[in-house]
Amino acid sequence: MISVEQFVKLFPQNKHPQAWTDALNAILPKYGINTRLRIMAFLAQCGHESNGFTDVIENLNYSAEALTLTWPKRFPQGVAEEYARQPERIANRAYADRMGNGPESSGDGWKHRGRGVIQITGKDKYLEFAKAAGKSYDDVFAYLETKEGAIESACWFWVNNGCNALADADKFIALTKRINGGTNGIDDRMARYELATKLFM
């Protein structure tokens, strides 16, 4: 179990610690995230991905420079300047023709942008999670933006990607790569994990 006091110490900027703690304690055990190592790893990784459980919808307000750095093939110099600071247009181009999404003109990229505390992205993942959570495709969008849905989608991703085993083995770098595809934000993730080890004795 996670106490409100532990949550507040880990995520002091969060304005709804009781509600988040209640949702975590209700949902994590259903996915086997029920040991000290698993809970600490989950909180550290999701805490980084969601900015301390405050962001459950992907922020795509990129500058031209950041677009080229993040998606060099989709936003080369010249193109990036046309899309900068336009989140909906950015999403539609960045996520077009992949992950089950249609072309840029379909609007699928924006519709299926990242949601949840480990942001699931793309129409295929939305459909898969809706089925797993017993939700209709139409209802899953709003559910992902609730505390329960944001956590459950992260738990679903966690279990489907073998994250419990990596947490059990204390392979935090490998776990980060499994979630992120690389080691972006590793210093923040590690700092959150180290704090969690002191709080969960």
UniProtKB/TrEMBL annotation:
By its UniProt entry, which InterPro entries does this protein fall under?
Cell_Wall_Dynamics_Protein, Lysozyme-like_dom_sf
Question: What is the recorded name of this protein?
Answer: Glycoside hydrolase family 19 protein
| Keyword Iron (UniProt) | no
Which domain of life does the UniProt lineage start with? Bacteria
Would the keyword Zinc turn up in this protein's UniProt record?
Answer: no
| Organism, scientific name | Geoanaerobacter pelophilus
What are the protein's UniProt keywords? Hydrolase
GO terms of molecular function: hydrolase activity
The protein's matches in Gene3D superfamilies, at most eight in alphabetical order, are given as: 1.10.530.10
